[in-house]
What does this fold into?
Amino acid sequence: MPFIQVKVIENVFSDDQKQEIIRNLTDALVGIEGENMRAVTWRAGRGARLSAN
It folds into this structure.
């Protein structure tokens, strides 16, 4: 089963924008592999802090 993991810069995107990103990535996968993939695709998203190294 596919697993989509999205990491975005913390405090840049709203919750609605993050959901839209995940939804659009899922739609892209389904567009390639077919609608049957939607039900078995796992999704995760989280914010990541940038470090100034």
Remarks:
- The helical segments are 15-33.
- The mean pLDDT is 87.
